[in-house]
Amino acid sequence: MDLSTMTMLALRKLENNVKQELISREREDLNKARVQIMAIAQQAGIALKQLMLDGLQPRTGKVAVRYRNADNATEQWTGRGRQPRWVKKWVESDKSIDLLRV
Fold it and tell me: Per residue in 66-76, is it b (16+ CB within 10 Å) or e — as a string?
């Protein structure tokens, strides 16, 4: 196939056909792999769900709030990361951060 003799329209059609074929083949390959993996898991007596979840780390919960703004109770801080502005202002005014501890 000599691409240099093809028109732009023909090249665009060819490009679209190639893209569609690639998508189709990727789906087929994925389905074949899925079937093979399921067969191997079944032969080993392993539930597919167990196989998929084993590698995942459990989600950790939220960190508890350690400090709450005395002037505005909606402003909270866990004590991790950078200090919020309200904590910095509190400390700069020579007040102990321990007074904010929950």
Answer: ebbbeeeeeeb
